[in-house]
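Consortium newsletter contribution from the modelling node. Members have asked for a concrete example of what our holo predictions look like. Here is one, prepared for the zinc ion complex that several groups have been discussing at recent meetings.
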Amino acid sequence: MSIKIFKHLINPETIYNLLKLSDLDKSQYWSYEKLKSFQDKRLRYIIKYAYNNIPGHKSKFDQAGIKPADIKTQKDLYKIPVTTREELQENPDFINKKRVFKTLYTGGSTGTSLKYYDDIISAIIRLNVHKRGWEWNGYRYKKDKLAVVSSAQGAVKTNQTLFLCGDLTQDNLKINVEKLIEFKSPYIRGYVGSLYILAKYCLDNDIDIDFIKSVNPISENLYDYQREVMEKAFTGAKVFEEYCCNDGGACAWECEAHEGLHYFMERAIIESDENGEMIVTDLWNTAIPFIRYKNGDKVQFLDKKCSCGRESPLIKVKGRENDFLISPEGAVGATYLMNRGIGYKYLSKNGKKEGVFKSGINSVQYIQKPGFVIDINIVKNPWCIDEEIMDFRKILETEVLRGMIININFVDEIPKSEKGKRQFIINEDKELLKQYRDKTRI
Ligand SMILES: [Zn+2]
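And here is the predicted structure:
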């Protein structure tokens, strides 16, 4: 055990919480009322903790004229002002250095990246809710074979995990599908767009995959036509959607009844504002408390109970709406693009971590126009240098957007769509999209 973990464990409160974690398997069958009172208890704790230890939250409370004692249950949450991602970005007033156990970065599917933290308890909770969610689709963590498509999220590098990576161009898809057939894993996980492109390739090329039991799409909106293609391509498989936004702790999984996603009440409180925007309060994270945090997704509470018997509410999340680009060589999913250019990159030398490189590109947006033209909107950070932009363009031209005309525009901010969202990929070539979709025989 490292000294860092040990230091956290000697805190009596931590030990109490760790013991409680073993109950997650049971708590999925708690009544709604019991889950709510569990949330209220954690809420009172986290609010008091944040007020006493985090200057950013204390000043928000003071400005609103409220004290922790004013927040008794989640019914009082409306009194607390909302916190935004922009407010937390690199803001030491919201970070509790003494509790930082792990540094995390949000994925780039929104076009920007947030650096945030876990304490040891929230790190364990994060893993445990994932384990429970995955078990609903049959996958047992570290025990079963799993194929992961273009995403390392939630995967552990063991000989039980196959990483299917690359740009998902036609050549690359062929290699990935061959690897998958050789590995024969009953479980497959990946970003929605990437799984869809892979499944569609199998259908279009009459490749029969019948060993997959469940498909676990993550991180982007899942549309019915994509679910249909996945279940058709992987004969006998069922799709289990997953929603997880670790900054803020909102997460939800589809159970075996497939009637919606159950929101995991043990980790966070999810609210919906008058515009359907999700507001989330993490019940565990003391390293960077997320209190009434607007994570940029939209949520709808479904007005029905799930037939599986679990009482945690069913939700539908409208999160990252991403199109995909189509180059003359084939479809390009969001995953590949979001790993290029933006955010943070670990630097290593001779296999050792040497630090973190923070990209000069603050955010990026791809817009495909008819005629294989891509307009790329870029918001630069002050330290961005021309060489980085040139490298970025070169990677796109030579690796993934071959044969396309690339126009780069520098903008002050990524324009919002009519719905108020900043979409990472927009494909305006509707005719080309239609041709791609119609190719599938379903
Ligand atoms: Zn259910």
